Amino acid sequence: MATVTIAFFALPLLALMQRARWSTLWSDLTTGPALDALRLSVACAAAATALSLVFGTPLAWVLARTRMRGRRLVRALVLLPMILPPVVGGVALLAAFSLNSPLGGWLHDALDIQLTFSPAAVIMAQTFVAMPFYVITVEGALSHVDPRFEDVAGTLGAGPLAVFRKVTLPLIAPSVAAGAVLAFARALGEFGATVTFAGNIAGRTQTLPLAVYLRLEADPPAAIALSFVLVAVAVFALVSMRGHWFRT
Amino acid sequence: MSLKIDMTVEVGATTVSVDIDAPAGQVTALLGPNGAGKTTVLRCVAGNVAIDDGVIALGDTILDRPPDTFVAPPRRGVGIVYQDHLLLPHLDALDNVAFGPRCHGRSRSEARAIAAQSLERLGVGALARARPGTLSGGEAQRVAIARALASDPNVLLLDEPLGALDAGTRTEVRRDLGAFLASFAGPAILVTHDPIDALALADRVVILEHGTVTQTGTVAEITSHPASRYVADLIGTNLLRGRGHGTTITTSSGATLTAADPLDGPVLVTIAPNAIALHRSEPEGSSRNRWPTTVLHIDGFGDRTRVQLGPPIALVAEITAAAARDLNLFVGDAVWISVKATEIAAYAD
Q1: DSSP string covering B90-148, please?
Q2: Which helix (H) or strand (E) holds A37?
Q3: Which of B1, B121, B159, B325 has the most CB atoms around its CB within 10 Å?
Q4: Which of B308, B328, B305 is nearest to B316 (CA)?
Q5: How far does B202 lie from chain A, in Å, by closest CA?
Q6: What is the topology classification, in CATH, of domain A23-241?
Q7: For B270-348, which CATH class?
Q8: Over the stretch B260-303, which tens digit does the pLDDT of each residue have?
Q9: Chain A interface disruption, residue of B39, B43, B48, B159, most A CBs within 10 A
Q10: pTM of whole model > 0.80?
Q11: Chain A within 8 Å of B47 (Cβ-Cβ)?
């Protein structure tokens, strides 16, 4: 049974390598449209990761450290995108921010901002899906930090912000890094929410996974070449997670 | 500046309500069973827990007096040392100790100079560049004490500072901690379970049970007159200072004892009260420590009787109430005592 299971996971990867057109791999990756998708993907995923760090860290702290009312509800709300079908996330984002929605309409009329079908929408869709991975990783780390470390630092003269910066953050640094890598990998692979909320405009909202899907019909070897980039990022994320989410 | 702690606080299901004065230049030991509220008192003084009622004041400075005054921990000038040193794992020993001075606005080089001096004072100057993970228990605890000291605290709180150390290390760190405390001008509070620590380090003892103070006094008063059976069991042992020459110990009052194991130099000696046998006449047998003395006082604690004995060595013996009846003891009676050499527990001081 276990052999069958291993084969089930190994076979697709081996097939991918077998079907690859190695001779033109590099040129397939460096064509104009492929490079555009690559650049857009990396930039947007990096932005989504940065947003996760900036907004996710305080949230993780609140969830791990405070006795705030409704904490469980907030945690459930934040973790929902992890199990929600991404396309549903995209539909929900559309409902909230499209030109037909009150908020999206107001943004357009008052500030002349249209989120849908823009790179900003790509970043929003990716952040929506990826940030929960960061929050849950950092929250877990925070709840394992002995609060007396922070107490001692306080008695030594450090204010709350200095305690966070000089004590808490260094203590959870490995988890912050792991959470960021995980969020980046998830953002880079985002498909459903992106295509729904941001569309599939080459050079503007067409990320790597969208390019792979689109090219599968017309130019399978190119699609496989782009897939390798995503596989490489996933492997890198796994190696970074080693001993963190699982043992090897 | 003495520290006044007159506070009530509810923590979980327990209410801690105490009134303790810790005088400047003295070490006040806080003893009590687990869950009595000892650590809670320390956390309130440090400002990590706000009190519900009462006042905590250092001299004329109010640190906490609900509802109007609460000084945040960084502004209290309280140094704290925990049983598990709690050194920051990502900083080396020097930067751990320099943390306090840095927070108080010193430049990096100034802070490190202060830290190096502080480490030197605790005898761990050579370990400045070591990470906490590579230090032994005794070394780490010395660094932790150096860290508390480097911030030049007004108050020192020691929460079982020797509790995690093995016997040999414990003796050494205790001696160095004692030397440091002797030169500390502010009030110090020491939470401990060990009567030896209390005798070696503390001037006064406060017994805490179920969140309230049940007895206060000097170490000698508490060990010789425990107010309850609990206190008697906890700390009501015979504590003596003296000097060892092989297996012979000369006590500070000039009497001699024979111990089983040789030890040279200054020693602390404990003799469990129930290890002292009382006799109406000179006992037969092999006890190497025996002498005549007089009964000064008799206290009954249920089925046990504590008998205070006079010169040559002031001791307390604990015998069963039945044995006390058989001996028919009265205050002023002449008795013989005997103690086996193996019951004389000596520690390097």
Answers
A1: TS-HHHHHHHHHHHTT--HHHHHHHHHHHHHHTT-GGGTT--GGGS-HHHHHHHHHHHH
A2: helix A32-65
A3: B159
A4: B308
A5: 23
A6: MetI-like fold (1.10.3720)
A7: mainly beta
A8: 888 888 888 888 888 888 888 888 877 788 888 999 888 877 78
A9: B48
A10: no
A11: yes
